[in-house]
Structure formats: structure tokens, C-alpha cells
Specification:
This protein has helices spanning 14-25, 42-59, 73-85, 99-108, 158-161, 224-229, 239-255, 257-278, 304-316, 341-358; strands spanning 3-4, 65-70, 91-96, 113-119, 141-144, 146-147, 152-153, 167-170, 187-191, 202-207, 283-284, 296-300, 319-320, 331-334. The two termini are 28 Å apart. It has 359 residues and is an alpha/beta fold. α8 (257-278) packs parallel to α10. The longest helix is centred in the C-terminal third of the chain and has 22 residues, at 257-278. The chain is built from ten helices and 14 strands. β3, α4 (99-108) and β4 (113-119) form a beta-alpha-beta unit. The protein has a seven-stranded mixed beta sheet, sandwiched between helices. The structure holds pyridoxal-5'-phosphate. Pyridoxal-5'-phosphate (PLP) binds at residues 8, 73-75, 100, 144, 148, 170, 172-173, 191.
Length: 359
Amino acid sequence: MMHNFDAGPSILPKEVFQQASEAILNYNNSGLSILEIGHRTDLFQAVMDEAIALVKELMQLDDRHEVLFLHGGASTQFFQIPMNLLNDNEMAAYTETGTWSGKAIKEAKLFGHVEVVCSAKESNYNYLPKQFTVPKTAKYLHITSNETIHGVQWHDFTPFYEAGVPLVADMSSDILSRVIDFKKFDLIYAGAQKNVGAAGVNIVVVNKNILGKVNRKLPTMMDYRNHIENGSMLNTPPVFAVYVCMLTLRWLKQLGGVAAIEAINNQKGKLLYDAIDSLPVFKGTVIAKEDRSLMNVCFVMDNTDLEKEFLTVCKQNNVVGVKGHRSVGGFRASLYNALPLESVKVLTELMKDFANKKG
Ligand SMILES: Cc1ncc(COP(=O)(O)O)c(C=O)c1O
């Protein structure tokens, strides 16, 4: 068995791989492959409808919120959001907590003013800055709930809820991994390729009431309202990617929903962080323990030769995807929803064994 800790695209439930591969050969006993059915057929409409309904149910959204499945990855949302929400002479507030929020800020500056209300750039994003004020004049506040590269995750959203301006969140790497009051957000987006499905599709949850307030002309494909009107089928949607999302969302519902997966994710995170904290040869890169991510666990060793040796040990034991991002170094173990607790046990046993030999 492989233990896949990749940061994304990443592990999905085994049942989803099984069902998706069956659907490639014969979708729902139609005699057709999921890859050859038209997106305007009843066969695919049922997939889209179920996927949207499952997101609404799992997130406990209300009628203000629309769920969209869009192309372009989360990176397209970096510019589509300010394009739809921010006039040239207006300002949006951003928290700068890692590489991904940095990229969102860069794109937003193309459409209006950006006020960075807090930044941990100086310390290579090894904590979350909590002293900040969001100006009431901001058109919206943008946060990145989990920074995939630096391994920091917001655990308390109260200051954002209290900011009193529309709240926008990039939840690419922790969507549906823990209980959050999703209704309190006005726009949530996530590349699906981590917790929700295959690469090639984005989930966007948007409060309709914040749309239609900018005065620039929007290209048809960039205007969220057109996607809402057309039920995420303004053009050909990424049919197979949406199908894999639907299967993964079904799996999550059957498991007991977000609260159930949160309990498992907490166990996985505790197991790995306890190993890091108790073995002197390993060191967590996030200095503020309360900001550590339960999805992307980053750690290093003092000696890069030892790091290489441990990577080899991992490989020999079918533990893959643990090499850290080059901007942080060391290791990054991603503990997304579909990763079994068993895999974390295997990794921590390898760490203990290695520490005993080298410590
Ligand atoms: C937090 C976060 N935001 C945005 C992105 C960019 O996503 P995409 O590659 O789908 O454009 C990523 C990719 O890993 C991410 O982790």
C-alpha cells in the first residue's frame, strides 16, 4: 500500500477511484463512458445537480449562497474576485500569510487598491499575525484559511466575522476538512484537487448579494452572475472533474459529514505534531503552535544530509509526497481528508525509528 502525502493533486478515497474508473467504462449502466456524454444530457445534469446539492448540504448554506463549479483553478479566482467586486478607485483588505495570499494580493492590485492589513512575510510566514484593523471602507476582506506551502492555518475566524465587510476566503487546501460557519463567508473558493476531487475544477460559493456592484465591463466568462444563471454550464464544464468531486462529496456525506472528518483530521494532526515535538531530530517550521496547519504539516532537520537520508527511508517504505516546498525546505506531509490515519501511523513510526538510530 502506498502512503500518499502529496500537497495536491493528492489522495482521494479508494472507493472514489474505483467508482470513477467504472464510470469511464460504463457510466451508470448507460453503456456510455462518463468521458463521452454531453454536458447537456440528463445523465450529466444529474451529476451537476447532486454535486451542487451536496456542497450546500455539507456546508449548511442558506439561500443567499450559490455554488459554482468553474474552470481555471484557484489562481483564476485571484483575479476574478477583484474584477467582480472592486472598482478601480476602491480598496480591498488582504491578510498576507504565505505564498498563496501573496499571489492573490498581486492580482487584486490590477483592479483597485489593496490594503495589506497584516503580513508575516518578514519571518517567512512562520506564524499568523493577529494584530490588525480592517478599514470599514474596504469593499471586502480576503483571507487564505490555510497556507499550503507554509503550513499555517487560521483556527479562529471571529476577527474576520467582526470586520463588518464582505468576507472572501481561499479555502483551497482545507475546504470541508473542519467545521466552519461557512454561511458567514460571502465568497469561498477552492481548487478541488486537494480535499474535494480531481484537478481541473474550482468550487466557488458566493453570496449573490455582493455581485453586480462594479462599473467595469466584465467578459462573459468572468461574470459570476452568468455562471449562476447558467447553472455552471455557461460553457462546457470539466465533466469528469465535476463527477469525481460529486463522488468524493458523497463519500464525505456517508462518512458523517464535516464534523466526522474533522474528528479524524484532528487525530491525524495530533499524531504527527506529537512525533515532531517529541523527537529532537525533527523541528516544526511554524513557531506559533496555535497557528499550525492540520492539513499541511511542515518540518525540517538541522542537517540536510539527514533530510536526504530520511526521504530515502520514506521512499523505501512507500511513503511518498513528503518533500517540502523549496521555499520552506525539509518536509511537508499533507493530511487531507482522504488520507487514512494508518498512513500517518506509518510515517510517525518511520520518524521514531529514524530518530532512535540518528538521535
Ligand atoms: C491555498 C491555495 N490557493 C491557490 C492555489 C492555486 O490553485 P490552482 O493551482 O488550482 O490555481 C493553491 C495551489 O496549491 C493553494 O494551495
